[in-house]
Amino acid sequence: MFYTIFFYIIIAILSTQSRDRRQTLKAVFTFAAIYMSLRYNYPSDYPAYQNYFNLANQSGYQYSEADHMEYGWYLLNRLFSPFGYYVFVAFCSCVFAYGLYVVTEAIVPKAYIPLVALGMFAMGSFEILMSAQRQLIAAGVALIAYRKLIYQRMKGFRSLFSTRTLLFFAIIIVCSYFHKAAIFLVIIPFMYLIPKKSFLVILGLAIIAVLLQLYGNTYLVDFFEQLQEETGEYSYMTFTGEYSGTVSFLQASMWIFQFACVVVVYSKYSYNDDEKVIMLISMLSILIIMAGFSLGQFARLAHFIYMYTFLSIAIISQKFRGTSFYQPYIYINWAWVIWNMLKVFSIPRGTLYEYKLLLFNL
Q1: What is the value of pTM for the model shown?
Q2: What is the DSSP string of 81-112?
Q3: How confident is the model at residue 29 (pLDDT cuts 50, 70, 90)?
Q4: For the chain, first and last CA: distance in Å?
Q5: Distances in Å between the alpha carbon of 111 and those of 108, 251, 276, 318?
Q6: Using CA atoms, how far apart are residues 54 and 222, in angstroms rounded to an integer?
């Protein structure tokens, strides 16, 4: 608990110190990379990934799908065999931190860095990604690929066949060899083709959101149970124990609030194509989380893109600036972030959910 509180305090200080926006972001995400790299036996899946690292690098071991690890992840474990598991964790952590840096540096103005950075790090998705290291490296690489290859470069349908976009698709396919679910990120370039202020888009997303709230616990669960019977797969989708009973009224209300604010800006304000796509990805993330209220494991897809919600908060804040919406929107989001940060005090001491420093456990 102490280390996580210290982490929040340092991030808050770093995000407000320098007048230079880029230097501020470099300091914030460098410290985040250090924090993530120096963890030991944290979070909950850390021991399982360490055991697999040791197994994959045993003499005579041959890759098997029965170990529930993708082949690309196996190869990456083998690649880092000479350096050890702790270096491997640091590598994955630094890739993800750099991914967060490059997208934040492109989008977030100086005034909103504290809110966006603390929001990203206080969300449960951040801890889950540190735990699920396959998703961590896949999400980090995908963020870098988006910023370097797609952002500010999509100029219509023909851009889908440009060298940069095809390279983006290839990188996402590689990411899917670290974690299969990463393949859904190939939709990002196609989002640039969605019209701005489209009534059909707004109506469709609103209907999906309402249906997920009303019928997610019945029809969605039944659908995956039927799919499981027919294919023998997706059994994990109907396992809700991980999330069951943990979704509070406040959590659900905040996601609905964020969704509604994105819809307002999408339908009423002016924005460029990149801002449009970031808002659409944010809405997709929220819809996946809403589905996760019924199917806990389905929500894991949102971990790949949860950071876009906070990027969209920066965009929405700029659009609301000078209107009566601005201050309430900022205050509500700060209250949400602080509420998420305060959850650290409920973490059981001495468990896998409490941050432990590597330096004191070697």
Answers
A1: 0.87
A2: TTT-HHHHHHHHHHHHHHHHHHHHHHH--GGG
A3: very high
A4: 20
A5: 8, 26, 21, 10
A6: 39
